[in-house]
Structure of Probable branched-chain-amino-acid aminotransferase:
Amino acid sequence: MSSTSQTPISVTRTRTPQPRPADASLSFGKVFTDHMFVMNYVEGKGWHDPRVVPYAPLSMDPATSVLHYGQAIFDGLKAFRGRDGQIRLFRAQRHAERLNKSARALCIPEMDPGLVRRSFEAIVGVDHEWVPSTQGTSLYIRPTVIATDVMLGVHPAHSYTYFVICSPVGAYYKEGVKPVRILATDNHVRAVQGGLGEAKTAANYAASLSAQQEAERAGYTQVLWLDGVERKYIDEVGTMNIMMQIGDEVITPPLAGTILDGVTRNSILTLLRDWGLTVSERRISIDEVMQAGRDGSLREMWGTGTAAVVSPVGELGYKGEKISIGNGHTGMLTQKLYDAIVGIQYGAAEDRHGWTSTVPALTEA
Ligand code: COI
């Protein structure tokens, strides 16, 4: 029978724990904790054998299907150590549900979301000493599912591996929460309706690389993606959702099948509505944004994502024109949003929506 949220998770501890890096040395996703969570799927048996084991390379046959056809999904969430010493996960349930949504898009068998959530708690509980404590640092949790059939036929696999690895992290961008420069591109597209744009799958990130490289060569940090049909409407920025304030309206593109249903996006829209701001999830063209930049009504722009939380945009380039936003400084609303989310994540601000859940340390019996 397939494992459920009631299935026990076995724990095998490492005999060679690694030294933990100093908080001040942390960047994004370069060091990994001592353990990982693993669970397997075989058709007929379902998901089985949930376990925490020492972190180790995965051994794979070169013909393993994920290596050829990219049947892979992932997600990303964080654990925070508050000043009270408690470790909190941010919106673990929503991340578990989104992993299943990505699974459906890639023909990967779904997992019990309660078990997925427990997989996060188990790995963070075992590696609790790896959760850094300085403000701005966290433990990034990367759940991933890969197809493991050894075959070269193009077909959904019959066997899969789910694993969760963790990395103590600092800021995602070297700029930290400083404004970034972004370049709108109409020679590359990230996704089209009917494609994989709303799934968190390796292919979307592979598809972004050449545009990203082009933006970096032109001196920008990220690409502002336009829609794949008319190449006119704004979709996303880099690996994040995008929002902007024009006059008194906060605008973000709608969830219409091409962009990720960001957990930070959802959290920020909830806060903005709590605060009584006018929020529109609507299509917005690059021409409307450039015009707002020229006439001064474009007040602030920011990206939202788990890794960077909120990333202010200080400059927007498009077809050779450059628009400076807020004179290149972080806007007041952007900063307020960052502070509000981070306050909840570290347990310093009231969690009115019940977004955080504490994780107890799993010490050796
Ligand atoms: C995020 O903003 O959390 C992302 O999706 C970035 C990640 C792929 C590193």
